């Protein structure tokens, strides 16, 4: 059967990825060394290709390759037009074992980026080789390019990590109706979008660390004579270590199909230089404007010097960027259904301050959105900018607020303005919503004033992707603020044109592109079952150590699902429902004269041992787990709710029933 060229290329790619995944080169080297040693005992006879193939067959290498190589049936009768109309937005998960075919259009240009290993990761110089089956820290490489996200399979951390991956990136055109046309060399030269590479380290407990965030300018491949270009990129650290090398990645770039005419290296260098000069000029003009604007703000009132008016913020690479550039209109497609669900998703991303060595004043670090999503945790600023971006995507008038909470601790949260003038605060760490009720300072003393329900104390400024406003009211106390942004006596606004010149998408080549969210990486039912089995084992072992037997009540365990589902629904919507049915079911399941006890708890991770240790710190849970009495029956239920990226809400409920003996 003859295959069209694009299908043949696709088939080669599947086989190539599979061979890399099973480390075929390492196995061939081992067989070759063994065969050469064996022939050394029988004279100096030269090793033929036929001898080597027989050796591979004897070791079962060929059988292993064919046994594990699976192809998905692909209907090759589709027209090229059908293939062209496929969306370019996708997320490729390299951890899955089933290889899915990729739609490769002969009418489009592709950049094939190969990672050929790493070196000089000196932090792991003394790390021993992991034993087979041993759990160890891993590196995972994440890539983003023009609405396409990819992730490598995790590899053990080492001084020379074995990162061997291939990523097929589609280089599509931007103009209306141009997405199906093949990009030529001149068009690709004008595409200044970099390949954003984020390296994440995951330790044995599942904790993630951002190692490096690198922007690769891939356009050097446009001058390669054969359309192939090998490069070594030096990855730098993040935060306070942004000037310290973290390691080196060896890459190979290849265009498919190859260019008929390549560009001169001087042309590419000139284009890059022009883009840098244009960006530098825009940033210089904005800085001049920002200084003048700040001076005018200070002249309004001397006390403004101490207000939290944040115009610039450093990202993970130590680059100062306007805060408005951290917010984008982000639509989640089918992954999130409502603004409240978006708030719930953001609250499931763990909170962590940027690590620092030594004491002193903590260095503030905001993160690009891709680095935040890949690490799956961040500071309050990262949570607030992501939540604001999602709320803007849902059509709300949303802003990030910079101010303080109790004990004068700097904090960042989100606010939305309703069409009726109502103001709602959103806490990105918890997904809680607070309706703002301002206090009237001129009201008579006997008039009752509303008490604030939110934890926020002062407010210095608010901003989104196109607006920046500083609070110039006599008091910056939140409960006294009037949120009429059109009143210049209360809010000093920056020029929207000035903000747009450096913060609008594509305005400067230095702005990191905004990635789309990817589908959940967790299968909820499988994760729930696995974690529940582990919790049952840990509970039974704990009781065995105490000399107690464990008898499970599977029916009672099943009934607990309704409660866990109601708890998650309440976190999403703020509405409690379903408790009546759960309570009625429990009353029916617990006989007269018996006592029922239950303990629900919520986690952001799926580590069974960490979760069980945390549960035992609660005296209520310990009372259930260590329950003694007559006719004791135990139950445990786990529900994992999957959200975009790798975020998940984990609910665990322990319960017991026993006969009350007075």
UniProtKB/TrEMBL annotation:
SUPFAM superfamilies: Cysteine proteinases. GO terms for cellular component: centriole. Residues 103-259 form the CEP76 C2 domain. The keyword Transmembrane helix does not apply. It comes from the Eukaryota. GO terms for biological process: regulation of centriole replication. It comes from Phoxinus phoxinus (Eurasian minnow). It is found in: Cytoplasm, Cytoskeleton, Microtubule organizing center, Centrosome, Centriole. InterPro entries: CEP76 (IPR052299), CEP76-C2 (IPR028926), CEP76_C (IPR056288), CEP76_N (IPR056289), CEPT76/DRC7_peptidase-like_dom (IPR056290), Papain-like_cys_pep_sf (IPR038765). Residues 10-69 form the CEP76 N-terminal domain. Residues 524-659 form the Centrosomal protein of 76 kDa C-terminal domain. Its main location: cytoplasm. Keywords: Cytoplasm, Cytoskeleton. Belongs to the CEP76 family. Centrosomal protein involved in regulation of centriole duplication. Required to limit centriole duplication to once per cell cycle by preventing centriole reduplication. This is Centrosomal protein of 76 kDa.
